[in-house]
Every structure is written in C-alpha cells, then in structure tokens.
Write a structure and sequence with these properties.
It is built from 13 helices and no strands. With 303 residues, it is mostly helical. Helix 3 runs parallel beside helix 6, helix 7 crosses helix 11 and helix 11 runs antiparallel to helix 12. The structure holds fe (ii) ion (FE2) (2 copies). One fe (ii) ion binds next to helix 7 and helix 8.
Length: 303
C-alpha cells in the first residue's frame, strides 16, 4: 500500500496531545486503584472444583492461549510505541503488569478444576509463545487503533463466555467478568487516544478504515492451527458470534469515535468512509444471516 506525505504524517501519535495522554493515564491509574484485585481471589470454591463442560473448556483455553502470548504483545507495543510520548510508554508497562495475571488466573482455574489435559495445554502454550506475534500495522497510530479493537473484542469474548458458564461454574463467571473489567479499562485508554486524533484531524480516518477492515484477533491460523474450528465451535454454541462482534466492538467504537462525522475534503478520507460503510453493511448482512455454524469475523472484510 502506498501512502502520500499527508498520510505519512499521521502514522505516529501527535506529540502535542501529550498532556491529554497524561490525563488518560491518571484516569486509568485512579480506576485501577479503586478496583485493585489479585488472581487468587477468583479461584474456584471447593464445591466448584470439578471439570468444566467441553464448551466452557474450549472457550477458556482459547482465551488462555491468547493471554499467554503477552511477552510478544509487550515486545511489539514497546517497540512500536518507543518514540511516543512518555505517558503512552508508561501505559504499556502498566498494561503489561495488569494483563500478566489473566493467564495465571485462567491456568490456575483449569488446574484446580481438573479441566482438560495439563500436558497438552502446556505444549500448546509453548507453541503459542514460540511462534511470536506478527502484524501488518503501519505505525503507532494504527497500533493504538488495533489494540483498542483487540481489547474490546477480548472484553466481549470474556463476557460471552461468562454468560455461557454462569450456571455451571458461578466462580468462573465472576473471574471472567473481573478480567473483562480490566480489558474494558485498557480499551478505554487506547480508544480515547484514537478519539483525540480523530477530533483534531478527521483525516486520521483512513488509518481507522485500514485497521478495521483487516482486523483479526492475535490468534492466527499459523499459531493456533485449529483456531477456525474453535471459533466455529463456540459460535454454534452462542459464544462470541459475529453479531457480538458487530454490536459490542464495531458499532460502539464507530459511535464513540464519531466516524460518520469525520468529514473532510480529502479524497482519501471520503474513500475511507465508503470502505467503512460497505464493511459495516457486509457485517450486518452476515450477522443477520448468522446461523449455527460460525461465521468468521474476517469473512465480511473479504466480501
Ligand atoms: Fe487480558
Ligand atoms: Fe487485553
């Protein structure tokens, strides 16, 4: 993809917004201080120390395998955002410290409930980390858009799984909701960094279109070779369907970022508007026709 010089200027984060980034960082620290938690508070009570159902297990293991790749997400963000203002770099370190206990909680929960085979899971964990994390993001601004979407999707995934397992494992439902609150706070920081750029210069819309149209969770078939099967399996059981992605990720961000109002004379921005609208229309069509069988999140983008 070739980029004009104006686009080049929008690849980074705007240093003149540093005081705003600092205020977002302070807001995050205050929210975390009010709800501080540690993973051992959410382990299963004695009466729930029994294996999860197959659906809950696949969902939790998929989430766990995503969380264990944290070293590579940290490396990617730390490297990608290295030249950004200091509140952004501090947030990445804080974010890492908060994400760190998600995998610990999920693995401990699976061990204590005797769910799945720990040896197989250990091999999958090692395989995931050994594969690293690769992305096609063009720079810091696209990185922040991607991370917003990823945190929103992760939050939604956890809430869907919590709903699905509340009856069989109430403690697990509570644990997943607690993790989802972390993901929500993380999403809010990155989301508001994006919003500040769009408000200052609507021509940042092209980057939003580029990321949204190609968004995939950091699960890739090359890492989790059976990911498509997992996704289809869970969708048929009502856990994280395309409609969840549309209603809880794409549409709320679309509204919050005011994408319809990002007007500009720029041909690139007008083109981005058209691409985004066609993408959302295709998502809606797929979501409406969603039948048990699982439709891939990326399917609409391919249409
Ligand atoms: Fe997480
Ligand atoms: Fe996260």
């Amino acid at each position: 993809m070739t980029r004009g010089s104006d686009d080049e200027a929008r690849i980074g984060l705007d240093p003149s917004l540093e005081s705003h980034f600092a205020a977002l960082l302070d807001r995050h620290k205050e929210a975390v201080a009010r709800t501080e938690w540690s993973y051992q508070q959410y382990l299963p009570v004695a009466t729930e120390q029994r294996p999860l159902s197959p659906t809950a297990y696949v969902a939790v293991e998929t989430a766990l395998l995503t969380e264990v790749n944290l070293p590579w997400y940290t490396a990617g963000l730390s490297h990608g955002l290295a030249a950004c203002p200091s509140p952004i770099r501090e947030f990445v370190r804080l974010w890492t410290s908060e994400e760190d206990q998600h995998a610990t909680l999920l693995e401990s929960y699976l061990l204590l409930t005797g769910s799945g085979d720990p040896s197989t899971r250990a091999r999958s964990r090692k395989g995931m980390i050994a594969a690293g994390w690769h992305h096609e993001l063009a720079g810091p601004f696209e990185g922040v858009i991607y991370t917003t979407m990823q945190e929103a999707a992760t939050r939604t995934f956890y809430l869907c799984v919590a709903r699905a397992c509340d009856d069989e494992h109430p403690s697990l439902g509570a644990a997943l909701r607690r993790i989802a609150k972390d993901e929500t706070l993380h999403m809010a920081f990155y989301r508001d960094v994006v919003k500040a750029h769009l408000e200052k210069d609507p021509d940042h819309l092209s980057a939003v279109a580029a990321v949204m149209l190609s968004f995939e969770m950091p699960w890739s078939a090359s890492v989790l070779h059976d990911f498509e099967e997992r996704r289809a399996y869970l969708a048929t059981r009502g856990v994280f369907r395309l409609s969840d992605y549309l209603d809880e990720v794409v549409q709320p961000l679309w509204s919050y970022w005011g994408l319809d109002g990002c007007a500009s004379e720029s041909a690139e921005t007008r083109k981005a508007h058209g691409q985004l609208r066609r993408y959302r229309a295709a998502l809606r069509k797929f979501a409406r026709s969603e039948v048990p069988g699982g439709v891939a999140v990326g399917a609409a983008a391919a249409e």
